[in-house]
Every structure is written in structure tokens, then in C-alpha cells.
């Protein structure tokens, strides 16, 4: 009872301080809000929307169940999750945060995962997408293509390690073990594909409308969290809370032989990965190896902004948030360790490799990532506007249909 009252007082006090801070720093809050809105408007929304819509349609068509049957012999012994986890893992890796949580929650709602399996799956299926790591972080912030290969390798290897460790979380039921021992064949997978599509029984038009509606609702929620935490991060800086926390982090960094100047970027990255990665790249007195290790931790931890998005999605199910939070901490440490381990075999070797002057480097030496990222920023708002108009039309016609019925 006392603990509950203390929590109520803490939440009320925090909300009051936040409201007062917004009044005290209106210009700074507005600029931070615009910054978060630009990130969502230009990059996050247009890059995630196609993946969300296509995934919803694949679920309705039964393709996810088809993939799940085929991947069962791989996903079950390695991660102790059903084969559908392979689809969630791939889509989460390709589209980035918080796609893994959304698809895991959907699989749980559909009954394809038990609660324990869903909690295992969500810990390692949320990751930064390659476009963000290469285009925004490596090329955009550090202006170093080779660093993107190191960051991506460390990030995804850390992701796999988290999945392997979390396989020991929870206990398997006898029904799950019997399901794993079944032999899965192509014929059985095709039969499941057909049965799932028949069971769904929605016309393609309604299926597409539901996919657009669900995807845009999720992305609107994501946008709200991005803007909120962008403002909170800025206010914490102006209230000198970030500086106070940074002094505590300086002791830890010094014990690990890291430059103390990385403390503020580290604290900022704990709240928002984009700002933290950008500030880390600006620390000139730190070595590139130390900058890469801090950035890897920030990408692995994913920031409280992303974690709040995931918590909001998981709250719609019975999936607990604690395993996901533990997975973020583990991935942050694993990614940093892999950065040190792979520094010489990957980054140093690639940097020392000389490209003949008469040869054309593959992918334009990584310029493709930068060009694609900037093209997304240019056409992103157009995609966002068109999608929001489509969302309004879908809601309008549904309201008319509901009134007629």
C-alpha cells in the first residue's frame, strides 16, 4: 500500500515538474518538438509503413503460418520459440524499431505464441534497421562507411546472443515439446497456408483497409513518443539533470579507460538513440574505437523513447515488459564487446584495404546508403501526407458503412 502511494506521488511530482519545465522553456521545447516531428515525418513513418502494411497482409494470407511451419526446426532448438518467430525476427531486423514488438504482440493475439515464447521473442526481434545504421549513423554522423559495417555486425551479433541467452527464460510446457518433435514438411506448410487464409475469410479490400488502419494507428503512437522524448531529453539538459547524471557516468567511464567527455552523449543516448549517436560523433577528444563502442551500446539499448513505444504495444497483450528491458541492457553490453572484438578484423582491415584508382567500389563505397537516406528525407513527407489522407478516407468510409448497417 505504501509502495503504491509513493509511486502515485512520484508520478504526480514528475508530471508537475514536466509541465512547469515546458512553461519555463517554451522555445527550447518547441524546437525539440519540431526536431522529433521531423524525424518521424521524414524518415520513421515512410520507412516503417510499407513493412507494417505488407506484414499485416501476409498474416491475413497465411504466409506467416507457412513460414512458421518451415522454420520450426530452426527457431525452436536455437531460441525456443515457434517458427513464426523467424518471420518476426526478419521483419524486425529489416524495418527497425518497434516492428519486432508489434509483430510479436500480433502473433500473441493470434495465438501463435505462448506468453513465455512471446516474452523470449520480443527481447531479440527489436533492432535498428540497416538503413539507420549505415545511412544515418555511419555516413550521416561519422562520415565513415566502414564504421557502418562494424556497427551493424556488432549490433546484430549482440542481438543473436540475447536470443540465445533468453532461450533459458521460462519453462516449456509438454505440449510445446510435442509440437517441436513433429516433422514439418512442405505439404503440411502449404495446407496450413490454405487453412489460415480460408479461416480469415476477409475480402482483399477489407484486408488492405485493416492493414492500413492498424499500421497508421501504430505509427501515430510511435510519432507521439518520439516527439515527447525529444522534448523530455531537451528539458533534462536545461534543468541540469543530464549534467548531474553525466558526473556519475564519468566515474564508470574513467574506470573503463573511456574519455569522460562521452558521458553526456551516453546519457542523451539512453533517452533517444539518434541524438545520442550524433553527440557521440562530435566528441573530438575521444578515439573512434571508444566512440563506436558507446554508439553500439546506445543502438543496442535503443533508448527509453523506443522502450516506451514497445511498452505501449505490449500493454495491449499479457506480454511483460521486464524481459524486453533486460534484453536491451544485455544487447547494449554485447554490442559494445563485439565492437572491441571486431575492431581489428573488420574495421582496421577494411580501412587499410586500398582500392585501385581505376576500379569502381561496390555500392559506391557506401554512398548508396547516404543517397538512399537523403532521398527518403526528400520524399518521406509526400509518403506521409498521402498515407494519412488514405487513413482518413478509410475511416470515413467505415463510418458511413457502420451507419448504414
UniProtKB/TrEMBL annotation:
Name assigned to this protein: Sporulation integral membrane protein YlbJ
Residues passing through the membrane, by range: 9-27, 47-71, 83-101, 121-142, 149-169, 216-236, 325-343, 379-400
UniProt KW Cell membrane keyword: no
InterPro entries per record: Gate_dom, Spore_IM_YlbJ
Keyword Cytoplasm applies: no
Domain of life the protein comes from: Bacteria
Biological source species: Neobacillus thermocopriae
Chain ranges of the Nucleoside transporter/FeoB GTPase Gate domain: 42-140, 219-315
Keyword line: Membrane, Transmembrane, Transmembrane helix
Amino acid at each position: 500500500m505504501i509502495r503504491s502511494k509513493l509511486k502515485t506521488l512520484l508520478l504526480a511530482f514528475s508530471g508537475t515538474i514536466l509541465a512547469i519545465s515546458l512553461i519555463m522553456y517554451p522555445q527550447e521545447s518547441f524546437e525539440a518538438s519540431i526536431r522529433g516531428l521531423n524525424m518521424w515525418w521524414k524518415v520513421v513513418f515512410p520507412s516503417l509503413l510499407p513493412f507494417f502494411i505488407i506484414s499485416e497482409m501476409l498474416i491475413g494470407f497465411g504466409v506467416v503460418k507457412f513460414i512458421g511451419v518451415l522454420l520450426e526446426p530452426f527457431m525452436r532448438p536455437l531460441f525456443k520459440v515457434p517458427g513464426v518467430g523467424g518471420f518476426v525476427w526478419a521483419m524486425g531486423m529489416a524495418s527497425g524499431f518497434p516492428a519486432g514488438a508489434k509483430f510479436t504482440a500480433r502473433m500473441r493475439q493470434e495465438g501463435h505464441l505462448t506468453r513465455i515464447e512471446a516474452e523470449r521473442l520480443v527481447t531479440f526481434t527489436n533492432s535498428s534497421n540497416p538503413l539507420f545504421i549505415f545511412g544515418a549513423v555511419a555516413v550521416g554522423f561519422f562520415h565513415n562507411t566502414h564504421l557502418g559495417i562494424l556497427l551493424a555486425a556488432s549490433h546484430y551479433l549482440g542481438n543473436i546472443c540475447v536470443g540465445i541467452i533468453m532461450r533459458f527464460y521460462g519453462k516449456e510446457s509438454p505440449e510445446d515439446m510435442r509440437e517441436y518433435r513433429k516433422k514439418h514438411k512442405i505439404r503440411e506448410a502449404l495446407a496450413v497456408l490454405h487453412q489460415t487464409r480460408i479461416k480469415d475469410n476477409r475480402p482483399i479490400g477489407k484486408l488492405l483497409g485493416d492493414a492500413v488502419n492498424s499500421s497508421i494507428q501504430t505509427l501515430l503512437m510511435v510519432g507521439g513518443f518520439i516527439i515527447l522524448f525529444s522534448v523530455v531529453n531537451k528539458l533534462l539538459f536545461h534543468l541540469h539533470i543530464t549534467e548531474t547524471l553525466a558526473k556519475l557516468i564519468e566515474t564508470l567511464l574513467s574506470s573503463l579507460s573511456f574519455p569522460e567527455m562521452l558521458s553526456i552523449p551516453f546519457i542523451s543516448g539512453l533517452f533517444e538513440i539518434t541524438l545520442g549517436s550524433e553527440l557521440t560523433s562530435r566528441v573530438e577528444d575521444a578515439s573512434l574505437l571508444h566512440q563506436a563502442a558507446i554508439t553500439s551500446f546506445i543502438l543496442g539499448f535503443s533508448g527509453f523513447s523506443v522502450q516506451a513505444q514497445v511498452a505501449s504495444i505490449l500493454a495491449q497483450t499479457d506480454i511483460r515488459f521486464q524481459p524486453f528491458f533486460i534484453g536491451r541492457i544485455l544487447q547494449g553490453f554485447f554490442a559494445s564487446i563485439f565492437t572491441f572484438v571486431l575492431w581489428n578484423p573488420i574495421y582496421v582491415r577494411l580501412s587499410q584495404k586500398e582500392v585501385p584508382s581505376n576500379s569502381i567500389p561496390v555500392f559506391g563505397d557506401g554512398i548508396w546508403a547516404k543517397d538512399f537516406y537523403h532521398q527518403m528525407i526528400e520524399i518521406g513527407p509526400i509518403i506521409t501526407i498521402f498515407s494519412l489522407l488514405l487513413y482518413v478516407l478509410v475511416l470515413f468510409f467505415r463510418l458511413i458503412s457502420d451507419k448504414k448497417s
